[in-house]
């Protein structure tokens, strides 16, 4: 097969006539980080990264914001000045289309006294909460007493909220997370109060946590943790509170299945983003009899250790995440990726930018060769709002505006080129 490409002339003509992409890039404030995005892509929640004193330790993230991606306005939601100034503190984890937020805060109703190294402090535990219209609602400790908890970092943690605001998922953490119990708080529409519901522990797991929930609150995803001969984690899906499905690749394509985590679910509940072995992204289709799709695994040529985290999945099955490479003796670096289900293709994120945000100025190239330490955190339901962080700098948002998926060129092993004239190159691709 031969195809003639008029490189210079074609490029000049194309760029000269190319319509604007409609994309826009937003950069947040330094020493803050984004955490999640609403399904419609309008709201992003995040928090600060500066350490504040808490007992004999430091904590961060309890001064939080909500970012309107349409107006580019950042609004303060919670503030935190340290252990002597925590009344308005709160760690935000998720937000829905109605601007209802979930997370956790320091609840004065649940105080613990600890003596460490001769110092005695009395401080509140973490308690799951919902923020709506400027009002904070405590979700409590799941019927447990303060005496059941051991450390200031213990408590209840809300990780995600359904788009109808009726279900908040998370976990109860005890003993600095030595014990974790997956759970949810479900709204009783008669009383207007959230009721605690403990979810089934994955079979054989010593602890588990829920990371995300579908838009209607019917499906939760997360992972269980194991010890003994099978030490590690396994991806889990709760289709019902009392029934947990442990996800494993039936073919064990990539071997070890003890580094699994289901980290996100599409708002429509059809797709789950996960990894089963810690280094390969997996798309799980809940409506299929053969739900597991192993995406491409990108190893580093230098033999660096690799860890993959899937950070977002859209209603059409598009998925984003990050490969983190840790070469021995050198600083680690990231490789953001984009997976499209339409083509069953995983590419570096710079290719997505090339297709849909080609005229937008950004401080990042997202190219693997640049070894930028840039991270994703979330993706909107329509796969048009990408939310992330510069790990050493400020948070960012990329919003695109395409209505039709562009063709993705197939990968070829080798090509032959020949200069055939001024500004003309013939490219030959072996069949």
Low-confidence stretches: 1-17
Structural class: mainly beta
Q: On the 0-100 scale, what is the average pLDDT?
A: 89
Largest sheet: 4 strands, antiparallel
Number of helices: 2
The strand line-up of the biggest sheet is: 2-31-30-29
Report how far the terminal alpha carbons are from each other: 6 Å
Portion in strands: over 45%
Describe the protein's architecture and organization:
This protein is mostly beta strands and 431 residues long. Helix content is 4%, strand content 48%. It is built from 2 helices and 33 strands. It has helices at residues 7-17, 349-356; strands at 2-5, 24-27, 32-37, 43-48, 52-54, 57-59, 64-68, 73-78, 91-95, 101-116, 119-132, 135-138, 155-161, 167-174, 179-188, 193-198, 207-213, 220-226, 232-240, 243-246, 261-265, 271-275, 281-285, 292-294, 305-313, 319-326, 333-340, 345-348, 374-379, 385-390, 395-399, 416-421, 424-428. The strands form 9 sheets. Strands 2-31-30-29 form a 4-stranded antiparallel sheet, with no helix packed on it. Strands 3-4-7-8 form a 4-stranded antiparallel sheet, with no helix packed on it. It is globular, with a radius of gyration of 23 Å. It starts with a strand and ends with a strand. The model is unreliable at 1-17 (pLDDT under 50).
């Amino acid at each position: 097969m031969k195809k003639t490409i008029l490189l210079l002339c074609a490029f000049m003509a194309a760029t000269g006539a190319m319509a604007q992409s409609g994309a826009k890039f937003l950069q947040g404030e330094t020493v803050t980080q984004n955490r999640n995005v609403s399904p419609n892509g309008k709201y992003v929640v995040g928090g600060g990264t500066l350490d504040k004193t808490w007992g004999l330790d430091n904590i961060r993230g309890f001064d939080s914001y909500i970012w309107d991606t349409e107006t580019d306005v950042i609004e303060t939601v919670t503030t935190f000045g340290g252990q002597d100034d925590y009344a308005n503190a709160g760690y935000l984890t998720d937000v829905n289309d109605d601007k209802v937020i979930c997370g956790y805060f320091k609840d004065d109703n649940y105080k613990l006294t600890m003596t460490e190294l001769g110092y005695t402090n009395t401080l509140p535990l973490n308690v799951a909460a919902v923020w709506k219209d400027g009002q904070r609602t405590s979700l409590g400790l799941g019927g447990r007493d303060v005496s059941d908890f051991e450390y200031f970092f213990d408590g209840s943690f809300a990780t995600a909220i359904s788009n109808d605001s009726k279900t908040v998922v998370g976990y109860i953490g005890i003993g600095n997370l030595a014990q974790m119990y997956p759970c949810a708080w479900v709204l009783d529409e008669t009383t207007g109060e959230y009721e605690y519901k403990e979810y089934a522990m994955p079979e054989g797991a010593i602890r588990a946590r829920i990371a995300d929930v579908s838009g209607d609150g019917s499906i939760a995803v997360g992972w269980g943790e194991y010890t003994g001969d099978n030490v590690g984690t396994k991806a889990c899906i709760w289709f019902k509170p009392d029934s947990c499905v442990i996800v494993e690749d039936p073919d064990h394509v990539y071997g070890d299945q003890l580094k699994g985590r289901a980290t996100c679910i599409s708002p429509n509940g059809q797709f789950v983003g996960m990894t089963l072995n810690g280094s390969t992204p997996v798309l799980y289709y809940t409506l299929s009899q053969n739900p597991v799709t192993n995406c491409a695994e990108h190893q580093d040529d230098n033999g660096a250790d690799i860890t993959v985290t899937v950070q977002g999945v859209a209603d059409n099955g598009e998925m984003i995440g990050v490969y983190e490479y840790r070469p021995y003796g050198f600083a680690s670096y990231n490789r953001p990726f984009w997976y499209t289900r339409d083509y069953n293709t995983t590419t570096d994120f710079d290719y997505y930018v090339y297709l849909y945000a080609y005229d937008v100025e950004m401080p990042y190239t997202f190219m693997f060769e640049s070894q930028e330490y840039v991270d994703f955190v979330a993706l909107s339901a329509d796969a048009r709002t990408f939310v992330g962080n510069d790990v050493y700098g400020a948070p960012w948002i990329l919003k695109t505006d395409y209505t039709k998926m562009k063709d993705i060129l197939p990968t070829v092993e080798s090509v032959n080129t020949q200069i055939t004239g001024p500004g003309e190159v013939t490219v030959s691709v072996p069949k």
